[in-house]
Amino acid sequence: MIHKNSTCKRTTGLVASELYFWHDTMNWCGFFEPTMTLQPGEHFENPETKRRMQNLLQATGLWDHLQLMAPDAASNDVIGLVHPQSHIDHLAAVCASGGGDTGALTPAGPASLDIARMAVGGVIVAVDAVMAGDVDNAYVLCRPPGHHALPELAMGFCLFANAAIGIRHAQKQHGVTRVATVDWDVHHGNGTEAIFLDDPSVLTISLHQTNLFPPDSGGTDVKGAGNSNLNIPLPPGSGSGAYREAFERVVIPALETFEPELIVIPCGFDASALDPLGIQMLASEDFRWMTRQVMAVADKHCSGRIVATHEGGYSATYVPYCGLAVVEELSGASNQFEDPFQDFVENYGGQALSNDQAAAIEQAHKAYFPR
Ligand SMILES: [Zn+2]
């Protein structure tokens, strides 16, 4: 109970629900439907990573210092801020038929539409609490994830664009003008990018492994209206040095220039060194450090207002430690849990910035700051 006697500098909201773990991604083989050569098994996006993160928050005692918030199911009108009714109807039809692939590699079970509504509703609850000042910041420990979902297509395990809907809600209900996203999931935040590509009021930033998922997505040439999209594709094998350089050279300057009134972190943990779907090398302390950088910008420009939405991360062993580090940092907990994997991962070869990583980051910098 490392956090039993913690004091927290901030009030951090945590949106959680047992029902998030009941979204059924079926017995797929990794991310493929079973065939005669693909043995049924476990889908990569299953409850375990998220459940274990929740368990660790509880076991360390940090849970008791968070402001727990229950999600509501989002209405069609709220989801309609991003998705047409036809998309909701399509998901309803697949779920009513007993489940199946709802789009591009995105399985859903019979209850998944209702649970996906709660993922959106969880982000809405978090945005409302942060904007009202009831909490300083918030973490939404939801499934299914959201950052790949397009308005008319479920994609990459994502049914609805949770974070994007939360941003539209913040603009509509709370009069927020400028919102920035910092997406450090190892995959490109293509859905968020597509939804706001023509909208200079939302700066979408994505750090991701070059050409991972979706294929041929996330290049530095996609700049959006009014320079409102920033992609930082990082070479496979990028670790602590590359991510820190990317933040200092590009992410932080872009946020400083944009001056957001709210920051949303589509927070994936699949850039960790132990993840089966990416081959980046981050340790929990890197996620803590990135959180601290975003918080410093948020403190300066928007009274610390941050909403983090849980995205990918497929190591059931390691996601909990990375997630705990983020929530510890958001809450300003006086104690820090010592990640048993930290020494092991930070001493991997290749954690230092390499020349090809520096060149990739410089290219992103030049694309975003052309002069
Ligand atoms: Zn991902």
Automatic annotation (TrEMBL):
GO terms for biological process: epigenetic regulation of gene expression. GO terms for molecular function: histone deacetylase activity; hydrolase activity. It holds the Pfam family Hist_deacetyl. It is an enzyme of class 3 (hydrolase). It comes from the Bacteria. Keywords: Hydrolase. InterPro entries: HDACs, His_deacetylse_dom, His_deacetylse_dom_sf, Ureohydrolase_dom_sf. Its EC number is 3.5.1.-. This is Histone deacetylase-like amidohydrolase. CDD domains: HDAC_classII_1. It comes from Roseovarius aestuarii. Residues 43-329 form the Histone deacetylase domain. Belongs to the histone deacetylase family.
